[in-house]
Amino acid sequence: MDLTVVAYVIYLIVSIGLTVWVARTLSRNGRVFLADVLHGNEKLADAVNHLLVVGFYLVNLGFVALYLSGDEAIADTRGIFEALSTKLGVVLLVLGVMHLGNVWVLNKFRRRGVMEREQLPPVPPQGWAAPPATGA
After folding, report:
1. Distance between CA 36 and CA 106 in Å, rounded?
2. pLDDT tens-digit map of 66-99
């Protein structure tokens, strides 16, 4: 078998495995943020969480597929490691950026929900207080 094909197979296995692992981690832990933002609406939190995971898969697996082809043929074992280190390094950076982007968006949603809850007074108003009299 051609060494370039071996490098492609290893690249795909590792890249897809990493993408699945990061997506599952985001899904499991991001659900808590979504439930908080959506005021405990578990069904809606699950639906939004699932949509975010599908988008994450589409973007990352699309990138993995586009980045698969190499510019040159691999001649030896050293070439396999060099090609894989470059390709997997870029995939890991893209996964990291996507992960940070997801965390940032979830945090923005959560902050907005907290700010909306803080705008309501903790106790309903019970009456008016007369303005202080100013002596002339």
Report:
1. 10
2. 888 877 778 888 888 888 898 889 888 988 888 8
